[in-house]
Amino acid sequence: MTRRLTLVSLLLSLFVVSLPARQAAKPYFPPAGKWEARDGAAIGYDKATLDEAIALAIKNQNPNDKDLAIDTPRVFANEAPYNNLIGPTQVRAGSNGVIIRKGYVAAQWGDVDRADMTYSVTKTFLSTVVGEAVEAGKIKSVDDLVAPYMPTGVDLFSSAHNAKITWNHLLRQTSDWSGELWTKPDWADRPPRNQTPEQWKQRELIEPGTRHEYNDVRVNVLSLATLYVLKEPLPDVLKKTIMDPIGASSSWHWEPYENAYVTIDGKKMPSVPGGGHHGGGMFINAWDMARFGYLFLHNGNWNGTQLVQPSWIKMAKTPTVTRDGSGANYGFMNWYLNDPATRPDGSKPNPMYPSVPRSVVAFQGNGSNLIYIDWVNDLVVVVRWISRGSDEFFGKVVASLR
User: Fold this and answer.
1) Distance from CA of residue 399 to its chain's centroid?
2) CB–CB of 264/228 below 8 Å?
3) What is the largest CA-CA distance in the chain?
4) Of the candidates 378, 380, 396, which has an alpha carbon nearest to the alpha carbon of residue 97?
5) 3 state DSSP class of 382
6) What predicted TM-score, i.e. pTM, was given to this entire model?
7) pLDDT (tens digit, 9 = 90+) per residue, 10-63?
8) Which backbone phi and psi does 339 adopt, to 5 degrees?
């Protein structure tokens, strides 16, 4: 009897000892307005090496004019005469960022509370909203043609070429959509050398899906098409389905162009852009960017609630395959993949960040504004206004881990 009681007591003690360990293994999710910080001993990093990484980011901060009303038209000067601003800008902060290791704040620097423009990181928020439209059944499949989803009288996809475009083509920037939106022709983003807009209109169009061409005008077409499908402003959808559930602040805002409004069901609604070439786009602080990245680090699940479906994330992380191999490191916008696809000719592009795991994904925008997601190292990094040396920076962050 005594031996039996002793055995029971031993088993109970083992259970009691193991229970806290199981509880401790549960991922930490920061409540709204707070994010707990822990030192290196607790979450596994060397502070001196991490400080070197931060010093590098500060050293390589963007030297351009911080007044983005001045800097943005200059950066996109090759788009003249269409590089004029038709959306809001503001004076930005300097170098800043947040490093999240094992769910906790390992480091922060600069003005991380300032809601700055993010340029093309906006595209990832846009593609996430498209995913919500798919999840809600408003878009049945990304392989569907977009044209049948448009209301009567909307001619975005009425031409013979544009009628062939699917949601997948728009998400991967392989549509070669042709036309003009919000006074900007599709020529206006990275225009071919020695070719006028008039010559561009006469070009031979490329079959949708055969070549990747980065183009903000076509991104804005995706945004408008999604607005027609959801019949609700995309910032409202993002707030309700993603930003509020992850505890984002109230400071972020997704700004339209001054002329980008349509009427749907009798209501005037803004159609927001997927970048900041012409002003507008997502204005957001580093903390909210980190929360967004942390959501995807956990495969779309936030503290037990599935906000983004794993099937959508799997598609977003799938490289874009084209005849000429363009887009090999591009998933859904703006998922940049560190493990590019093999080209049709058998060659494979170099990774964007050779110093870190191949499985890394980065959401990238001009400036540079970056959200780095590293599942191997349980790591999310936001770095803003770094002009060069991002691979060396991320490499030093990873080198600080133990």
Assistant:
1) 25
2) yes
3) 96
4) 380
5) strand
6) 0.93
7) 444 444 444 444 445 799 999 999 999 999 999 999 999 999 999 999 999 999
8) -115, 85
